[in-house]
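User: Fold this, then the next.

Assistant: Folding the first:
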Amino acid sequence: MREGGDLVPNGPNPQLALSFTDAQFRAMVETAASAVICLSPDYRILYWNEGAQHIFGYTAEEVAGKNYLELFLPENYREGVSADIQRVLRGERTWGHVNPVRVRSGELRTLSWNAAPLTDSSGRVIGIVAVGQDITELRRAQAAWAAENLALEGMARGEPLESVLAMVARAGLQAARGAQYGIYFREEPDAPLHLALPEGFPDLLSAELRRRKAPLALVEAAIGLGKPIVTPSAQTDARWLELRQAFETHGIRSAWAYPATGAADQVLAVVLGFSSDSPPHPDELELTERLARLAGLVVENRWAVAYRLRETESKLQTAVEALETLRRELSQQFSFEELVAVSPAMLEVLRLAKQVAPTDTTVLITGETGTGKEVLARAIHAASPRRHGPFIAVNCRAIPETLMESELFGHEKGAFTGADRRKPG
């Protein structure tokens, strides 16, 4: 094996050599952003390029001859990846196999792998060569985008504000490097603060946040300042003293509160973040800002809808009151008390009209034009059980005799020529 050559120095098979005949190709492999690794049939690392060093955080010398599965894979993924490797050792090629790996920092990164058999000069399979692309950020962005869409759809469906904001926090949980997010909000501008937490939020921390008042003080401070408050050492910061046990249990080392502002710099919500990094990683703070913008959009929209709803209800109530006032005025205007009669015949008509008004029966009023038939009809209507309904006056002289029955009493479809639909009377 050549020093700095094709195999990891001090590998388990020193007699094995990979020959690069093209120096440019070799340089390309060494400088590729993707991880290029070679494994022996027993999963020992034979080759480790600079791309792998960058992604995993280990040099070639540190991983030489180590068991790849035990060193980098979460235990619940080892069996599946081992089965994939065995397929490649039998001569198959695999494409786009995705699995998480644990890198030096302890973070889980997601890689997509293409693998092929590694053969010697005689064509005998002596291992596998795999090329892995880090798709962690892509997966996080996809998850965040999907969750944000769910939040916006929930907002459009009119779901409770807490549920929608929990979806926003869920977007942060899926897209983050391991940070946890909760969102404090108000149902209305002057209402008390509430807390929205996503599914998957640590149970102990969730219970402590809802029970303790310490976070509220920090949230109120962030609201007052209108800018983020970051505590790089949350376990020792006096403002988080009541939550120290929960922080230690969940390995939380830093925390921050990020206000979401709207028009006129009004604070609409506060995103609370927790991380195992100290200080929090810049990516986590950048994601928090993104979540704050989305949370602000959700809250601002809900406040605007609530305001418009109250405004509409107020206008509707005003219209109802005005209509009721008008109805009372009309009832008084056309009441029997407003009708003046002297002749015995007219007094008898009024007596009969008052007698029939409370009943549910049809009344026929006849008389010459201008004698007050419609006025009497309105008085009967105003004194009847139907007085809260509309009174509809129809000028029968304007309706042709052939259409009179149809217009007043309606007709069924096909009752006569041209009756192409049912018409109620």
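Now the next one, as you asked:
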Amino acid sequence: MVNSSSAQLLRDPIGAIHALFEEATKGHAPAAHEDYGITTLFEESFEEPSELAKVPSLTALWQQARSNNKSSLHGKLARVQCHVVHSDSEIYGGAYRNRQGGGWQFGRYGCDIDEALTGPLREDAISFEERTTLDCRCHADPFDLTDALQNVSLASGADDDVLKRLTVKLYNEKEEGLLHATLDIVGLVEVADEEVILHALIARDERLASRLSSSTEQASAPETRDAVMQELAAHLSGDALAAECLLLALCASVTVRSPVLIGPIALNLRNIEGDQASALKLLIQELAAYTEVIDLSIAGLNKHQLFPTHDGEQFKPGQIQLPKDTVVLLDESALSEGKLEERGVKNLQCLANSITSQELVFAFPFNEFKIAMDLCFIDLSKGKSLLPSTLSIPVKSGSTAAARQPASMTLKDMAIYIARCRLQEVEISDEVSQAIQNDFVRARKAGEAIDQALFGQGLALAKEVTRSYKRRQMVFDDYRRGVALASEVNARQ
């Protein structure tokens, strides 16, 4: 009987795995499709959040082993949250027959094989199996202050880049549908020539906003909304209109893809540069589930590769390959005259397509395919952006006081609120829908300056106003506020 306590599995995970394998294969040959109860054992033992929290993060283990031989991490149990940028499959030896006694040794999860017992390996002495190999980017838990990767851009040159690119070996799972998924992994560590490999025992697909929204929220939606508005306005020269547009953009997400993309608000904030741009980026990084800053200077566009490529042999991920709910901060504040090279031109084309379609094109030598995204694009620029946007607004100094949130309202509370808003579904009842149509007809008859485009933009903003109050049902006042916002934005152009 295998000891299933979380404490024992933390002390000797490989011992527990071997015990289950040996118990299941007594008198039997191993089977490629058989799990031997290993996944169930670990999932049940770490089902409770309090037990799962006892598993050290991969970052913490790596930090502890800095001064030691990294090979000491081999076989340790670790957890990590990561984003899949590429997937493939491979054949490997899942079990090896011993030369004497007829027993088998387990080869999954990076378990070491004693070649002295197996002797010269023959094909009939190996159980060949298939597993999925994932090329992943690691993420920090935004509320885990011990995680060294917290608030680090996914493409930055941090000292721990070796951890930010991770190979995950996934067993008993197919690779279909995993590309761009965000996975919570608990597995066994293997370090090979400074490459970190995690052999997954538990793999859960969880949206980033869902992870944040599970935290406890302290205040009501209107109270938190007001606090977020005040904080954003304080970083936007007191401009209440720009602050509300930014709030709605952070809350918006894709709701419909076909036949027309509906939901996301790509926002261009103009007249932003220097210290104000830096301070605003830092604030958004605190409020978002995850952020990626993309340098849109001429040098930055020519240097970095935003789009993924494959030359037939090697896959190279792009910087824009990001998990759902990421806020992409496009920084044009340092843009000046210069010459865009071929890569720079392709980067701009990639961004423009990603903003308008929320799809990322994967280019292969003889074909290409598209992967759906759900990202929030915020473009900070001095003048009008080079890129398309849903809303473009010049930031102006306003009369709004640069107030901060009450002492009881933290940036963490605000981040939880925004995450929950992104997950909020919005419906329009028949009654409200009829009232909106009647109001549109009335406005047209009265000669008010509202055309089909303004009506559509106002209705889209109205849905996000509803979402920002965390209401499922839109009320007519939300529609009126949405149209008013659209009118105010257009009046500033």
